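Below is a filled-in request sheet from our internal design queue. Each sheet records the structural input a requester submitted and the sequence that came back. We keep these sheets so that new team members can see what a complete request looks like end to end.

REQUESTER: design group, bay 2
PRIORITY: normal
MODE: inverse folding
CHAIN LENGTH: 240
BACKBONE (tokenized):
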């Protein structure tokens, strides 16, 4: 196990940059698929192909056609979710490669991490009901210009900065980039049924997918954030 305080940030950055060409090609491939908001069966198959390169312990498709992949089987259940293509292309690239980074650096801890890609780009996201998947927290890999967005949870209203999910995100950002993050609130279109959620990702919030990535630097930063976040979340929960 790798405690959060012992994350080798330099090595994480180095390995992320080694994947730069592959990640960028994956991102561009997702943007190239036809269909409303970039969604198509082709994009789904492309994501699955990339997922199968990573050491995920479980890969399956639910009844709605969402791609569900798992790392670990620990106490704390975390979900990284992306829309798969279109405006979600950067998020999909980041979370899929986060799995590879976690494995490369041995950043395992007491978590079960579900990395999921939904097939419906425009429909509200619902937590998959089958297989007992009910995460404690969700990180939505959406364009936020690398800001941490605190989302609504149906039971709690907006999260605030004292929430352990937000604290974990702040700690992740500060540990990796040695700067304080920008933190905002934003209504969530995701149907999370009271599950606390934040959003974080490369690209301008609400922007349509550009011909090129928001910047490769932002894409790599987002992937590193997604990879480091699970151990930081476990660390935050242990402090309660």
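RETURNED SEQUENCE:
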């Amino acid at each position: 196990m790798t405690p959060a305080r012992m994350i080798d940030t330099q090595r994480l950055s180095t390995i992320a940059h080694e994947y730069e060409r592959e990640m960028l090609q994956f991102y561009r491939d997702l943007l190239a698929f036809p269909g409303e908001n970039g969604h198509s069966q082709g994009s789904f198959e492309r994501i699955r192909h990339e997922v199968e390169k990573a050491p995920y312990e479980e890969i399956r498709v639910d009844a709605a056609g969402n791609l569900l992949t798992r790392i670990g089987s620990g106490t704390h259940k975390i979900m990284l979710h992306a829309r798969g293509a279109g405006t979600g292309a950067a998020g999909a690239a980041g979370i899929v490669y986060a799995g590879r980074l976690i494995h490369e650096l041995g950043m395992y801890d007491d978590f079960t991490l579900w990395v999921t890609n939904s097939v419906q780009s425009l429909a509200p996201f619902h937590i998959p009901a089958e297989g007992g998947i009910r995460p404690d927290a969700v990180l939505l890999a959406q364009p936020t210009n690398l800001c941490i967005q605190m989302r609504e949870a149906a039971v709690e209203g907006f999260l605030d900065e004292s929430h352990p999910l937000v604290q974990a995100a702040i700690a992740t950002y500060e540990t990796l980039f040695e700067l304080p993050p920008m933190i905002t609130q934003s209504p969530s279109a995701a149907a999370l049924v009271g599950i606390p959620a934040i959003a974080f990702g490369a690209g301008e919030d609400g922007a349509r997918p550009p011909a090129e990535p928001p910047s490769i630097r932002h894409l790599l930063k987002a992937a590193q954030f997604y990879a480091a976040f699970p151990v930081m979340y476990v660390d935050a929960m242990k402090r309660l």
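SHEET NOTES:
- The chain has a mean pLDDT of 84.
- DSSP finds six helices and ten strands in the chain.
FILED BY: M.R.
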